[in-house]
Amino acid sequence: MAHFAELKTKPDPTGFTSDTHQVVERVVVVGNDCVPSDMHQDGETWCINFFNGGIWKQTSYNNNFRKMYAGIGMVYDPVKDKFLSQQPHASWSLDSSDDWQAPITYPTVTEEGDVRYNISWNETKYNADNTTGWEATKSNDESETPTKYNWNGSAWVSE
Q: How far, in Å, CA of 125 to CA of 100, rounded?
């Protein structure tokens, strides 16, 4: 079976920019008898004819082409000919593999003994001080208001 994503041109779904993007509206499955080969124009043409228009791009369920399998809300980059996840935060940028990366390297300490750090990005903290951004709570902290920790580049420091 072949999979195709219907695209709609929309303003940046994240709201981080005023750019327009081709956003995945839905993904459909098409019989192989309608598609001569992967990424063949006839498959997109078949979708246009069958679904009465639209912009269609084939996507690979096994991630064999166009970077990753398209999902609703993802963005298609026509220059790179790839499906990309939405930008998670305004400060993040694409790396050479077209994966979103934070401006600060992910913490190297993710656990201490049996305790894991539940790590997340805090864009507000980063905007206030661009040397910070990663924060965490400990997996064994069951208090009503868990202690927050900030990553200083080499260790977790409680707030």
A: 19
Asked if residues 7 and 24 have their Cβ atoms less than 8 Å apart, the reply is yes
Q: By C-alpha distance, which of 49, 62, 60 is closest to 27?
A: 60
C-alpha separations of 89 from 57, 94, 112, 148 in Å: 26, 11, 28, 20
CA–CA distance, 40 with 4 (Å, rounded to integer): 11
What's the first-to-final CA gap in the chain, in angstroms? 52
Local mean pLDDT, 10-residue blocks, the chain (159 residues): 96 90 96 85 93 96 95 96 96 96 95 94 96 95 93 91
Rounded to whole angstroms, the Cα distance separating 13 from 88 reads 11
Interatomic CA distance for residues 35 and 37, integer angstroms:
6
Confirm if 110 and 119 have CB atoms less than 8 A apart.
Answer: yes
d(CA 59, CA 5): 7
Phi, psi of 21 (to 5 degrees): -135, 160
